[in-house]
């Protein structure tokens, strides 16, 4: 048993939360980026977060959110972590962490080895790092595009903070991804959906089983 922790991101319904909890995932992600098909409002996310059982880490995904936006989310939704998925600087990560008193996960988009340089700065201020496939130029979404990157870039690397692997993971490839990268945590959104923003309980269960 590898005991890999799984994050299922972009939950939109009570059935999604139930499926994630039943499958044994460690994290439930709520997407607050309005352009995403997985977007939920703070009011909607509050209802979903209150459905989550104890022990399921509730994560808010935001993209270059200002303080007013974060204030609205944090004041309404019972959260355990903030995930910054935009162009936030290390200074901004530190600001957010200090302002809200919540652990912060910073996302790093990777397409080539040079992209990993940013990780060194962010690991000094973030609580966790999420290594994702870099979005194509001109893409509307910063993540959740179903793209992978060259996992060989991560082989043998060690960082100061816990990290999570994302980017095009599915029930079919997640086991290989874990084996090749040594990831102890993995994140998925589109890879467990039947259509953009529509989670599939069977694929969620299969993904968690394959990761474990």
Could you explain the architecture of this structure?
- This protein has seven helices and ten strands.
- It has 212 residues and is α/β, with parallel strands linked by helices.
- It has one domain: Alpha-Beta Barrel (TIM Barrel).
- The protein is globular.
- The model has no long low-confidence stretch (mean pLDDT 92).
User: What is the averaged pLDDT score?
Assistant: 92
Order of helices and strands: EHEHEHEHEHEEHEEEH
- Provide the helix percentage: 25-40%
Q: Rg from C-alpha positions?
A: 16 Å
The coarse silhouette is globular
Question: Poorly predicted ranges (pLDDT <50, ≥5 residues)?
Answer: none
| Percent of sequence in beta strands | 15-25%
Instruction: Supply the helix-strand structural class.
Output: alpha/beta
Q: What is the top-level CATH class? A: Alpha Beta
**Count of helical regions:** 7
Alpha-carbon distance between the termini? 6 Å
Question: How many domains make up the 3D coordinates?
Answer: 1
Q: Total number of β-strand segments?
A: 10
CATH architecture: Alpha-Beta Barrel
Order of adjacent strands in the largest pleated sheet: 7-6-5-4-3-2-1-8
What is the element layout, followed by pairings?
Elements: E1 5-9, H1 14-23, E2 27-31, H2 42-51, E3 57-62, H3 67-76, E4 81-84, H4 90-100, E5 104-110, H5 117-122, E6 128-133, E7 163-165, H6 174-181, E8 185-188, E9 193-195, E10 198-199, H7 201-211
Parallel strand pairs: 1-2, 1-8, 2-3, 3-4, 4-5, 5-6, 6-7
Antiparallel strand pairs: 9-10
Helix pairs in contact: 1-7
